[in-house]
Design goal:
Length: 175
């Protein structure tokens, strides 16, 4: 009876250890996925800012519009972590105001630049959605009782969603 009891207890301990190890590994993989998604989002935001700066400096826009767009793109590139969401939303609104002008698409004869801008805007939308999905899944995993009780996430910060106004300009949405 004692041998059977020892084997049962040993099997339970082994299965519990395997399960805890699996949960810790899953949480680690989720954090890696989150970091990768954040890097992709940062790259997409920087690319959009770069294309906006290129558009502002291309002399395709009137000087006042170029200045406003360049200022918004520069602010988005140099914003700190606390102001980043606000600066990126401002860039989105400025970009919509520039591109949705009646004379913009009639006047601009640079299809490569417009395609690059459309691609950059779309990548921001997709990257942000992917990042926010990764944040949601990671937050759920960190909230589970086992992860909280055994501190499987260690001392990592609770991930935050990245909420910006990233609606594409109407000219790009209808194409």
């Amino acid at each position: 009876m004692t041998t059977t009891l020892i084997l049962v207890v040993g099997a339970i301990v082994l299965l519990t250890a395997v399960y805890i190890s699996w949960r810790a590994g899953r949480l680690d993989r989720l954090h890696i996925r989150l970091e990768t998604a954040q890097a992709a989002l940062d790259a997409a935001l920087l690319r959009r800012s770069a294309v906006c700066l290129e558009l502002a400096g291309s002399r395709l826009l009137d000087p006042a519009t170029s200045l406003v767009l360049a200022a918004a793109a520069h602010e988005a590139r140099t914003a700190g972590p606390d102001e980043r969401e606000h600066a990126e939303s401002d860039l989105s609104r400025t970009l919509r105001a520039v591109v949705d002008q009646e004379r913009f698409l009639e006047k601009v004869h640079a299809p490569e630049l417009l395609e690059e801008l459309d691609s950059a805007v779309a990548k921001v939308v997709y990257s942000r959605r992917f990042y926010n999905t990764a944040v949601g899944v990671t937050r759920i995993a960190q909230r589970r009782w086992l992860a909280r009780t055994l501190r499987l996430a260690g001392h990592t910060d609770f991930p935050q969603f990245f909420e910006i106004d990233d609606a594409p300009p109407v000219a790009f949405a209808t194409e």
